[in-house]
Specification:
- Helix 3 packs across helix 4 and helix 9 crosses helix 10.
- The protein has 379 residues and is an alpha+beta fold.
- It has 2 domains: 204 residues, Peroxisomal Thiolase, Chain A, domain 1 (3-Layer(aba) Sandwich), CATH 3.40.47.10; 167 residues, Thiolase/Chalcone synthase (Peroxisomal Thiolase, Chain A, domain 1, 3-Layer(aba) Sandwich), CATH 3.40.47.
- The strands form 4 sheets. The chain has a 9-stranded mixed beta sheet, with helices on both faces. A two-stranded antiparallel ribbon has the order 2-3.
- It comes from Chryseobacterium geocarposphaerae.
- Keywords: Acyltransferase, Transferase.
- GO terms for molecular function: beta-ketoacyl-acyl-carrier-protein synthase III activity.
């Protein structure tokens, strides 16, 4: 088996940063009224700016595939040209279409004159890590000499007011308050657009920071816990999900069936506890000493979880001091599958990493509670 290194990373964030006060200028006002929940959610998630692939009239400026392609193009240089790429592996939770696959669409945006091996990882936040794992294993096994792995999102298009206005109008007809359910509105004030890309190769680059991938582990708790984050479906009283395909088409708009929703009660109960449990399993599996970890990059959807995550890790013997943690959530927002790519790119190009240091990546996915972690060594 070959060693595998992240030899270059690049981030693409569309347009200019959007402040908290500007959000509804881009996303629009549901039922023409400012949100009453917005200030509460923003106070808890501690996000101050994010990025939207929208203009101020709510018109799209980029597709998800275009955002991902921009990140990929940032990897090309005199050492790695576009025609050198052998595998493109992309993960997202917000593809532009149900079919074709997201990786196919990204490949199409790259203006290449060659065929590629491609892979699309679906899901939520862990889709980016699954895309990375596919590239890692392909290079490690010698199937490909290199792999470009991407995590990308364009959630803003899912969160514009027009996607919810029909539901608000229906509530008025039913003589109910036109307030969209919290499980739908909650995510409007947290999600951001962008993409991060990694180049994986079998050798580190001389005189540049490279990161050796030691392992990537995955854990799912779907056998224990019901779904927490979902779209294209609606949760039933017993916790099961009813597919969009089983609803009459006129119900799709009335109930915002395709909106991304989150069951915050289930989220609070499990997201941190299972994250600590899974990471403890990896440290035991690889016989790792937490003191050997120099940098901790944990994707969190909201600043609300920052203190709690550190505490839960400490409860299972993984008490990383604050100076080892690296976060950029407040500046870029929650970019789902792209978040861990973008955070690592920022750290990788910060000048702070020293040869021999260990970098830990932790990614939770609240869809039905799946987790991943990876250990990297600075070369």
């Amino acid at each position: 088996m070959n060693d595998v290194f992240i030899t270059k990373a690049f981030t693409y964030l569309p347009n200019e940063p959007v402040s908290n006060d500007e959000m509804e200028t881009y996303l629009g006002y549901i039922n023409g009224a400012p949100s009453k929940a917005k200030s509460i959610i923003l106070r808890n998630n501690k996000i101050t700016t994010r990025y939207y692939a929208l203009d101020k009239e709510g018109n799209p400026t980029h597709t998800n595939a275009q955002i991902a392609a921009k990140a990929v193009e940032g990897l090309f240089d005199e050492k790695f040209k576009k025609e050198d790429m052998e595998l493109l592996s992309v993960g997202t939770s917000s593809p532009d279409q149900i079919q074709p696959s997201h990786a196919s669409m990204v490949h199409g945006e790259l203006d290449m004159n060659k065929s590629l091996a491609i892979n699309t990882a679906s899901g939520l936040c862990n889709s980016g890590m699954n895309a990375l794992n596919y590239g890692f294993l392909s290079v490690k096994a010698g199937v490909h000499k290199n792999a470009v792995c991407v995590g990308s999102e364009r959630m803003s298009a899912w969160m514009t007011a027009d996607k919810f206005n029909h539901e608000a109008e229906n509530l008025i007809l039913l003589e109910e308050r036109p307030i969209i359910a919290f499980k739908r509105e909650f995510l409007r004030w947290m999600l951001s657009d962008g993409a991060g890309a990694f180049l994986l190769e079998g050798q580190p680059r001389e005189n540049e920071v490279s990161l050796k991938i030691e392992f990537i582990d995955f854990y799912s708790y779907a056998h224990e816990i019901e779904a927490c984050m979902y779209a294209g479906t609606e949760k039933q009283e017993d916790g099961s999900l009813k597919s969009w395909a089983d609803y009459p088409s006129d119900e799709w708009l009335k109930q915002s069936i395709f909106a991304l929703k989150q069951d915050t009660k289930v989220l609070d109960k499990y997201i941190l506890v299972k994250g600590a449990e899974s990471l403890r399993s990896s440290f035991d599996k690889h016989n790792l000493d937490p003191d050997t970890v120099d940098h901790v990059l944990a994707h969190i959807s909201s600043g609300y979880f920052k203190e709690g995550l550190k505490d839960e890790f400490a409860k299972v013997g993984l008490d990383f001091p604050w100076e080892k943690w690296f976060y950029n959530l407040s500046e870029v927002g929650n970019i789902g599958a792209g978040s861990i790519f973008i955070a690592l790119e920022q750290l990788m190009n910060s000048g702070k990493l020293k040869k021999g240091e260990k970098v830990l990546l932790c990614v939770p996915e609240s869809g039905r509670f799946a987790y991943s972690c990876a250990l990297l060594t600075v070369c």
